[in-house]
Amino acid sequence: MLLLALPGLLFLLVPILAVVPMSFTAGQVVEFPPEQWGLAAYRELFADPRWGQAIVFSLKVSGVAVVLSVVAAGFAAIGLSRLHMRGEALVTAVILAPLAMPVVVLALGTFQFFIQVQLNGTLAGIALAHAVLGVPYVFLTVRAALSKLDMALVRSAMSLGAGTLAVLRWVYLPAILPALLSGALLVFVVSFDEVVVSLFLSGPGAVTLPVKLLTEVQFNLSPTIMAVSTLLLAVVVFALVLGIVMFGVHRTVYRIAIKE
23-32, pLDDT tens digit by residue? Predict the structure, then answer.
């Protein structure tokens, strides 16, 4: 099976890995393989404050999106697991709708709505839109964790006088904490990588790194872009290794498959 999958893996990985040597060219033109090797692209990257601003802004957006999606999806999953109300499937479908909806449609609708509430071109607006995209991932992971929770523990805690906050703190949170961390990692990757929604909602002082990359590719294809791409590839590899260390190979691969 591995031999059968090897051509497909090479087809996917070789173009990505080709970015790495192109980032070490000493010239001003992107070429593979480079005629001269150097760190000029990385020096230019760190010398240009606009790249740093885009990276910092993306980190802020992703951080806020993680917090919003984890809180919203966590409470939604817990609430639906306890209510068992009529129409639960409809509510679940609404929560998972961003997974099936074309991103450009969601971006256009969000753009039109945010114009009315003056959230276009703001960190809060972009982070809120990214949180909507991230909620389904946290919801699915938390719901899977709750399916293994013995509800007798909840009933026992309540019968002993534990209030709602105490039950959440001492019963639910320990059971879903790994799922929350896994979902948060997924949301961070989704938010940091999102370009379509960010492109619709960006403004003069609100440009994320993917939007910056897209505009540079359109108007100024240079080795600096390859340097940024190489650093992003390193971050992805680090996140993958972190996921394997925290959750194991099988669970990490499963969560990556859900994202794709």
Answer: 777 666 666 7
Q: Looking at residue 256, what is its pLDDT?
A: 46
Q: Let me know: does 130 contact 62? Beta carbons within 8 Å.
A: yes
**Which domains does the chain show, CATH number per domain?**
56-259 (1.10.3720.10)
- Could you give the C-alpha distances from 2 to 6, 9, 183, 248, 259, in angstroms and in order? 6, 10, 29, 20, 23
pLDDT at residue 257 tops 60: no
Given a cut of 70, is residue 154 above it in pLDDT?
no
Q: Measuring CA to CA, which residue among 80, 82, 105 is closest to residue 91? A: 80
Angle at 55 between CA 218 and CA 41, to 5 degrees: 60
List, in sequence order, every residue forming a beta bridge with 37; answer none if it has no partner: 25
By the 8 A CB rule, do 244 and 252 touch? yes
| pLDDT for residue 202 | 84
Residue 203 φ/ψ, nearest 5 degrees = -145, -175
Q: Tabulate helix, strand, coil % of the chain (nearest 5).
A: 80, 0, 20
- The band of 42, judged by pLDDT with boundaries at 50, 70 and 90, is confident
